[in-house]
Specification:
709 residues, alpha+beta, 7% strand, protein phosphatase activator activity, Serine/threonine-protein phosphatase 4 regulatory subunit 3, P4R3-like_central_dom, coiled coil, ARM-type_fold
């Protein structure tokens, strides 16, 4: 029992005025010789490590908030808070603090904070003026009360004294009683004064006052006072919105009355902060820090209470995936889970981890697989938002789930394929949903955030899965748009017509090669993908246009970066068709690189034969590299076997005369390729005059040999 009573979470306030969770443990108060005084100690419940060691200073101002919080500052801009699981434990530690400081435990604050500018004035205040003297709570004194409240905001000491006075005399409830009287009498002047009073009391920034003002029997009157802003011609109707328009829907009945009350309170206080209160000035911006903390701890408590109620969440997911659930009910359930996930964003990382792991254990991903495929646009949009929270939390968790799906379902209903299809078929003219889904897909297939370990390589496994089960879905629109394009001859020009997909295909290939990833390079070689590129270069003739420059730049990049596997493939298979191109030195340079590498390999082999037992370090690295390549090819064997046989059959049928179905002719003035980087400049371009160009047009368009097998 004592362990539960003393169980606490330790929080510190960061620079952004947000509470950071430092861990969960058990608190005690004991004498620490090193600190020479009674101190608060918190030891982590996980490993017993020390989370907090704080001496109870006689001059530190401690505050008790919401019955289960103790907040204090140990130094400038370093605020601490203990959040107790039980009120009894909070009361025990609070009594100990008050005992050390010689204060009455009935108070919610042990010290009046003093700023340096007021120290001298504070010393002159006689002890008899411990509290600010409040005027009688009467209609005729409302203006006087309003003036008093607004006048103390610039003085920290007077703010503290006014807060104590308001609490000690039950003044808040009396003021709210006057509000009801003024509203019945339509006393606009009195209502305007009450607006100033309530707004000022909120700016006192005291949790004890918030507990009274935001209680069930007071909060709607507080909202009512804030409707009568003197700057407005007509009052706002916030109460009407909160009671009639904003309906609280229990998608699954909440049996815990405390949880239900906490949800109502948090929504209304958040509404006061975000909608009702005007944007604070620079002077006022720190006056509502305690209100932020009030909302924050409420949300933490709500998420914790819901998370611990496994029966409630199990029922939510059961109804969410039940085919018999009505569409309107399912829409409410999805929106609830979305709000639940949004609330979790207020949690600290370790608490957020536990939250999403709970959802994962309850089957959030299988549920999303079902609801994201439904026709209801609202349900799909909310489900996509939930999915984005999960992907942001742990891409690896999502990948692990989708890789297990093929064992249980067809390719068409895989979760990741559902996302791809919705991205492709987004009906929004502005493609808002498609952009969101594109970002999620990019996160999932980004190799940079994939985990690698000695026993498991996520990158290899997931990318292999993606190419096998998902790539055909992603590329389907591209293939559908190009399937009807065939090589055809223009009888007037006797030349092959342009296929407008050529620029996109060339740019795509350049980007892949730019990655310098042997994983992709081996697939380029496997698919013989340089053949259509070289055919396009030869078909372009001697025209020095953007297509020519882009292709030359591609090969120049391979030469400069010395990508050995691609250089060997190009020279071995295509050099005879390229050796006649002499207006640039790119292809001769590729041949030179190829010969240099062959010489190095030969020298290494000769050294090995001379003394096979005395391998030097370079030779060992060389053999290790070869082993790595063999291992890599073994890992990829399954994926390579899945490569479509149709391409190989097509290439066999075209061996006599090669034509690329998707990369034929490009007009001289084609601006779609202007996005290509590093276009090649030719030093002899300036020597070509218009006469030479005219002469070229009269000749056959093919000035270089056609690539033949």
């Amino acid at each position: 029992m004592s362990d539960t009573r003393r169980r606490v979470k330790v929080y510190t306030l960061n620079e952004d005025r947000q509470w950071d969770d430092r861990g969960t443990g058990h608190v005690s108060s004991t004498f620490v010789e090193r600190l020479n005084g009674i101190s608060l100690l918190v030891r982590a419940e996980s490993d017993g490590s020390l989370l907090l060691e704080s001496k109870i200073s006689p001059n530190t101002a401690y505050q008790k908030q919401q019955d289960t919080l103790i907040v204090w500052s140990e130094a400038d801009n370093y605020d601490l808070a203990l959040s107790f699981q039980e009120k009894a434990g909070c009361d025990e530690i609070w009594e100990k603090i008050c005992q050390v400081q010689g204060k009455d435990p009935a108070l919610d604050i042990t010290q009046d904070p003093i700023d340096e500018s007021e120290e001298e004035r504070f010393e002159e205040i006689p002890e008899t003026s411990h509290l600010v003297e409040l005027p009688p709570c009467e209609l005729s004194r409302l203006e006087e009360i309003a003036d008093l409240v607004t006048s103390v905001l610039s003085s920290p000491i007077r703010r503290e004294k006014l807060a104590l006075a308001l609490m000690s005399e039950g003044y808040i409830k009396k003021l709210l009683g006057l509000f009801r009287v003024c509203e019945d009498l339509d006393n606009r002047e009195g209502l305007h004064h009450l607006y100033e009073i309530v707004r000022g009391v909120l700016f006192l920034n005291k949790a004890a006052l918030f507990e009274v003002m935001f209680s069930d029997d007071c909060i709607m009157d507080v909202v009512g006072c804030l409707e009568y802003d003197p700057a407005l011609v007509q009052p706002k109707r916030h109460r009407e919105f909160l009671t009639k328009t904003a309906k609280f829907k229990e998608v699954i009945p909440i049996t815990d009355s405390e949880l239900r009350q906490k949800i109502h309170q948090t929504y209304r206080v958040q509404y006061i902060q975000d909608i009702i209160l005007p944007t604070p000035s620079v002077f006022e911006e720190n006056f509502l820090s305690t209100l932020n903390s009030f909302i924050f701890f409420n949300k933490v408590e709500i998420v914790s209470m819901l998370q611990e109620d496994e029966k409630f969440l199990t029922e939510v997911f059961a109804q969410l995936t039940d085919e018999a659930t009505e569409d309107s009910k399912r829409r409410e359930l999805v929106n609830f889970v979305k709000e639940f996930c949004a609330f979790s964003q207020t949690l600290q990382p370790q608490n957020r981890d536990a939250f999403f792991k709970t959802l994962a254990n309850l089957g959030i991903l299988p549920a999303l697989e079902i609801v994201m495929g439904m026709d209801d646009l609202q349900v799909r949009a909310a489900a996509t938002d939930i999915f984005s929270y999960l992907v942001e939390f742990s891409p690896s968790m999502v990948r692990e789930f989708v890789m297990q799906e093929p064992q249980q379902t067809d390719d068409d209903v895989l979760l990741i394929n559902v996302v791809i299809k919705q991205m492709i078929c987004d009906s929004d003219p502005e493609l808002g949903g498609a952009v969101q889904q594109m970002g999620l897909l990019r996160t999932l297939i980004d190799p940079e955030n994939m985990l690698a370990s000695t026993n498991k390589t996520e990158k290899t496994e997931f990318l292999s899965f993606f190419y096998k089960y998902c790539m055909h879905v992603l590329t389907a629109p591209l293939l559908a748009n190009t399937a009807h394009d065939k090589n055809s001859k223009d009888p007037q020009e006797g030349s092959t017509k342009i296929n407008l997909v050529c620029p996109g295909a060339l740019r795509f290939m350049r980007r892949i090669i730019g990655l310098k990833d042997e994983y992709y390079n081996r697939y380029i070689i496997k698919g013989n993908l340089f053949e259509p590129v070289i055919n396009a270069l030869l078909d372009n003739g001697t025209r020095y246009n953007l297509l020519n420059s882009a292709i030359i730049e591609l090969f120049e990049f391979i030469k400069v970066e010395d990508i050995k596997s691609l250089i060997a493939h190009i020279v071995d298979n295509f050099y005879k068709a390229l050796e006649s191109i002499e207006y640039v030195q790119t292809f001769k340079g590729l041949k030179g690189r190829y010969e240099q590498e062959k010489d190095r390999q030969s020298q290494r082999l000769n050294r090995y034969r001379r003394d096979a037992r005395s391998l030097d370090e370079d030779e060992e690295l060389w053999f290790n590299d070869d082993d790595d390549d063999d291992d890599g090819e073994a890992v990829e064997k399954r994926m390579e076997d899945d490569f479509s046989d149709s391409y190989g059959k097509y290439m066999e049928a075209k061996r006599g005369k090669l034509h690329c179905h998707y990369c034929i002719w490009l007009p001289t003035h084609c601006y779609i390729l202007t996005a290509l980087v590093g276009l090649v400049d030719y030093p002899d371009d300036e020597d070509d005059d218009e006469d030479e160009e005219d002469e070229e047009e009269e000749q056959t368009p093919r000035k270089r040999p056609r690539l033949n097998s």
